[in-house]
């Protein structure tokens, strides 16, 4: 069976309004993809910034505890009457480090969609 030119083109080309709908859908899909990519870029930048701040804060806390320990050991600070202070500062710092580590792992480095 031989088809006429119009019959053959009818299966290949779509009407103009269908082409416009397809173009609009393509534009909408491209816009959604752009928004998704921009959002991911912002998310990764925020994650990088916050992970740097958290690492810096944890480092500062560790250095503070090390300095406090050295000062007490060298006799610069004497907490004979206030031994609870050293324990309180050490425990508090430890809990801050664990808490920030939890936040970093849970919210900054989780791979939830």
UniProtKB/TrEMBL annotation:
Keyword Transmembrane, does the record have it? yes
Region entry Disordered, spans: 1-25
Q: Where is the chain membrane-spanning? A: 50-78, 84-109
Question: Which keywords belong to this entry?
Answer: Membrane, Transmembrane, Transmembrane helix
- Report what the protein is called: Uncharacterized protein
Task: Provide the species name.
Answer: Rhizobium deserti
